[in-house]
Amino acid sequence: CEASGKPLPDVAWIRNGELESSGKKATFLRFDNIDRTDAGQYTCRANNSVEVTSINTTIVVHYPPTIRNVTTSSKKSWIGQTVTLKCLSDGVPSPTLSWYKPEGSEINRVRAREIKIQVPLRGDQDFGHYKCTAANGLTPSDKKLIKINQIKKPGKASIKSESVIQATSITIRWTAPADDGGSPITGFLMILQKDETEIQKVNITDPGTTTYSFPGLQKDTNYTVKLFSRNFVFEGDPTVWNIKTKFEVQTVSTEVYLTATIQENCSRRSEVAAKFPEMACQIAFRFGCSSANTVNTRCGSVVLDFMMRFNQTVVVSNVLIVLSDAARQDKFRGFKVNPDSIKQVLLPTDGSESTAKGPEECNCPSNNVLLAIIGVLAFTVLLLIIYIIWLHKKGRTYEDERPVYDNKTLLEDIEPSLPDSRKLTQPHAEYMDLIEVNKDNRKAQSTPPGADYVPLHPLTRCWEVPRHNVTIEKIIGKGAFGQVAKGTAVGLRGSPETTTVAIKMLKTNATESDKRDLMKELDTMKQLKPHPYVIKLLGCVTESEQLLVLIEYVPFGDLLGYLRKSRGLKDTYYKDPDIKPQTNLTSQQLMKFAWQIADGMSYLSAKSIIHRDLAARNVLVGQKEMCKVTDFGMARDVQQENIYERKTKGRLPVKWTAYEALLYGKYTTKSDVWSYGVLLYEIFTIGGSPYPRMDGRKIANLLQDGYRMPKPQHVDEKLYQIMMKCWKNDPDSRPTFTELKNQLKDMETLHKKLIDMKMYDKQLYANVED
User: Fold this and answer.
1) Topology with regard to the membrane (predicted)?
2) Beta strands 76-77 and 142-150: pairing type?
């Protein structure tokens, strides 16, 4: 920069307000090893105290291009879909960006810093690595790859069952296909055909299920079973299995003799002989097992021959399958059983060489001493029985002189008693651990805060209620295959009083799979002790034709309907005409709903129970607006599209299902935490639909791209951040239910600041989609 004047001016170079160089000889501004940071506008200013003048110049630094990022709208897709590819770069001069197909042909080219293209996926050749390149004449150029994975039909499952049977039912066993088609297996479809006519279709939505039984087969008939595997998108080709029913040999019996090898020291064989048969009977309860006892024991580990008595005809092969599966899953509490050792043995006969013959001599030490001890104990017990009978007869003399007492004895004061195991039809030991009771520990348990009845001691829990003691009054809720009725029951837990109950039962169009789901729900509830925020089991009817599950009656219905009716919207899923809908819910009530549900889920999580369908529709509202988590198996109205999104012919509550469960089929208690975050959205929007007006089939892709529901305008940022923590991609980063309960309960006093009901927009959340 040359400048002249009198006096001779000083020259200065300025960039971004900072002095780069100055002086009478600062005509030149020199750059060594110039880089892109030197680019920009420079000002040359001349000053000789008479006048100041300046001139600007711009330096443009050329540098090779760099691709900063390549993205796709979906990393997994299938034929018929369209994906969006985007490539971002920098570089001077502006680079030329190009996209190339997996086989190498160019798709599009532009001179810009960003290129976005739509790629229709028409065939297998359209899947693989797509390449974005950037070039501007300088070296080196840049490129980046991104892969589009293809989802196809899953492979065929492998069936492992007999092709010729001598029975009226068949249990099909299978293994899932090794090829899932690029997406996790989500379930199976099984079709039973007779002479090419479909007679039964079963939709199995649990991908972990690998067995299914078809009862009521006809003799000397050819059947065909077709098994289809399903992933998130497609249904695979069927595995076909032909079955012939023959009746040349009778294979059903009411008394079945079996043998099993238990990996225990021989010194424990008395304990094994006493406990193992009853465990086996409880596991085989579905087949009508009424009792079981040991016939013979031998050493070498412990080899046990035992007899199982059934109250109906039974297919022995099916019993063996169930017992072997239980052994593989370690369901014989405390006993390690060899699954392959469980077999049928011949019926014992007198004087014959059979497994029922007298016990073989054990190589255990002190065997004679053990027999002597047993003899002494038996004699002592006999004397004790005689003494008790004598006392009983003596006491009858004074019966008429006893004072009359009220028969309503407190439950805490009743000593637990065990019914005769041969008469016990309800397999309680299968669902709860027996605990040792001593005299110091038989005091009644204190009632937990908020509970409205005292917990039953595990040894007194007998849930079965005679069918004639249950009266169904009216239907108050319906689903596709199940329904809930209001009714009464007499004789719950031995009490002569009549109790109002809710009765869960199946509709006439329900399948065997639906019945098993309700039985699973019943089994789950049997494991639970009373909790104020979890629905309570009161009894069941399993011995009649219709399965009934009796739970506590809650008059206000489900939480979703309760919220919607509070603002005048119609909700008829769970409707009791005798109950008027509540109106004008306060922010404090909403906060109370939130922490109560978290408390109930904290209890279920501690019991290792994964709900998998936590939503406002599956929470009931009881007296004093107490929320109770329910529905451990029977979903609310599965015919409604936006709750249970179609996956081929299966269904999934997509808008409530966790990120990892949608993409990979993985469920944990942290998956329930995700669903709880969606439930909070339902509560704080007073029954609003999550992801409003969004197609459920696109939810997974949106979540994969980082989308989360926006904050409702009337909800404080602190509450919204709790919801966002529930929706973290990494399940381990989500809070526990205990943390959620404590945090929300502490925030309850700040409810007015956290939920501003004045800003609530009824119109915004008026779109009811379920």
Assistant:
1) Single-pass membrane protein
2) parallel
